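Protocol step 4 of 6: record predicted structures for both targets in the notebook before any analysis. Target 1:
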Amino acid sequence: MDKKSLAPLKKDGKALILAYDHGLEHGPSDFKENMETAEPERVFKIASHEDVTCLAVQKGLAETYYDDYSDDVNLLLKLNGTTSMKGGVHYSPKNCTVERAVELGADALGYTLYPGSKMEEKMFEDFREVQENARKHGLPLVVWAYPRGEEIEEDTTPEVVSYGARIGLEIGADMVKVKFPQTREGLEKVVSVIGDMDSVVSGGGMKTDKEFLEMVKTAVDVGCQGTAVGRNVWKRENPVKLVEALGDIFYRGKTVEEALERM
């Protein structure tokens, strides 16, 4: 896809994607540190901040809230998702079609893949239909590339993360979201195998302000476009401060130490 078509995902070449799909993926327990963010209206208001490039949500939230924020928020609609209540095989079913996403005014699409799962073949088949329809409508497609399965003992090694990222390139993603592969050198390996495809690191579990900002600064320094972050924003007492600290690093050329002065 033409890089111009990725414009909704980026600002000045960097991506600050707010992920708000954990209400489905992890449940209400993820809101307990800051219950204000359990209210979608509050999250859409934060996502209208000029430093945010887009907001990733599931279909139901887009249907209910997006109309009021469509002028100020770029919508990245997640087309699949699952819950933490089911055990066993890793599989994320489709919850929304590309056509419905277009009707809702989506600027980009998101899709989770679990390479290595026993359901890998089914997930790839599902994705093929999504990817080809996304192309027809000119919508950029972000893949949450999360290798999981019986043969994968540790999903954050450079080898596993880079393989997952490469799969995104091979099957037609425009941007891939990956876990931080433990070290700067590990992330350099990831970037080295994905050609011209864009990449962002996930926020992952809760980190201190300094740990998180250092991680994303490393990501952009080695060639990633930024971050797709959820819990590390929403669990903080003041999510906007972290958004602005990320903006300092991504757009305003600040160091981690300077960005930390906001926190």
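Target 2:
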Amino acid sequence: MTSIGKYQQQDNIVTDKHGRHGFHQTDNKHSIYSISQKSNYGNSGFHSHETGQLLYLSEGITHLSIPGLQAVISPSRAAWIPPNLEHSTVMNKAHHYQSLYIDTQVHPDLPKHFCIKQVSPLLRQMILDVEHWQEPWDESSIYGLKAQVLAYEITAASEVPIQVPSPSDRRLAIVCEQLMRQPDIKHSLKEWGQIVGASDKTLSRLFKSDLGISFHHWRLHVRMMHAVSLLDKNLSSTDIALAIGYCSDSAFTHAFNGYFGYPPGEYKRSSSN
């Protein structure tokens, strides 16, 4: 058994200080149950839950892993982990996280796949509110109504791309493959159009129809994925900025902070500890 802050993990079950279980829907009579933790370090090891889980950090960041994929979760985002999916979390700095364990039989419209959700101010407040719900409550109470709205807000929240989507159109594929190899290329859509034989309007339309996002957001996603990789290699922010197409350290820091919700220096410090 390993201690994680004020909670304990044993046989894939986390209990709070009162000995209540938050991982198995059979252990808890409520369709949504919250565990809140403040700590300076946490490493859950790989485990799974019989319920769905929404993992949200109101402070700090966490590195979350599922088989074949890693993600960084910041206060602007939450991870939706469907039932029985093996995952682990590592939190190297001071953090405050809220885990909502949700019975997907009661709330069947929640996603069936792992995803990262953008957290709106409304969703944030609803997540933080759950730990204050007065027990006991049932699905016909005001808390049951809140649970329905919360599940709806989670489902409706925008998904953040985890992996860079790949195009099917030949012209778009040329653009994307080159930028994946060389994210520092600064061509405009018009310049790319001249290279691949399409107008900038055609390429703009293809990005949205084929990939579901704009050229600007696709390129930003590529650059940020490269940035995380280069930060892990201990490169300086200035070197990274130039390597992924930014003209200055400040421009890179502004873009990184806008994308992840924290500056590259904080990511670097967290990863090195």
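Step 5 preliminary note on target 2. Residues 2-160 form a domain with the Jelly Rolls fold (CATH 2.60.120.10). The radius of gyration is 21 Å.
Proceed to step 6 after PI sign-off.
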